[in-house]
């Protein structure tokens, strides 16, 4: 097995691991729980850092299937963010939460 093939498999395993972690993140809280909100920020920050790293690698060493895996991961992270925003009863608080998460992701990705 070539080095490129081994690296491709490692990237795919990394994606699948992150997908599972995001899917299984237990953020179901009936109230505005600061610990769950902090956990959501951690998920979105790690997603942004991982996505930025993968985008840089993918530009230099294109890997088959990475685009599809990135879309899956993006969908799962978006579901988590929207689910957590729904915890807030006030629409203004929901929007602030969403804006803060997306702003943080954009800030991290712009550094990549």
UniProtKB/TrEMBL annotation:
- Organism's domain of life? Eukaryota
Q: Which residues form the Vps52 C-terminal domain?
A: 38-110
Q: Which GO BP terms, alphabetically?
A: endocytic recycling; Golgi to vacuole transport; lysosomal transport; retrograde transport, endosome to Golgi
| GO molecular function annotations of the record | syntaxin binding
One GO cellular component this record assigns the protein to is: cytosol
Sorted alphabetically, which Pfam families does this protein's record hold? Vps52_C
Question: How is this protein named in the record?
Answer: Vacuolar protein sorting-associated protein 52
Biological source species: Portunus trituberculatus
At the highest ranks, the source species' classification is: Eukaryota, Metazoa, Ecdysozoa, Arthropoda, Crustacea
């Amino acid at each position: 097995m070539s080095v490129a093939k081994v690296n491709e498999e490692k990237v795919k395993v990394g994606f699948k691991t992150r997908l599972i972690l995001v899917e299984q993140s237990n953020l179901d809280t009936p109230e505005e729980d600061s610990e769950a909100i902090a956990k959501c920020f951690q998920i979105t920050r790690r997603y942004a850092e991982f996505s930025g790293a993968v985008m840089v690698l993918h530009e230099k060493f294109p890997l088959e299937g990475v685009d599809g895996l990135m879309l899956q991961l993006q969908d799962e992270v978006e579901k988590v963010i929207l689910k957590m925003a729904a915890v807030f009863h006030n629409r203004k608080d929901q929007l602030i939460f969403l804006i803060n998460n997306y702003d943080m992701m954009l800030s991290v990705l712009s550094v990549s």
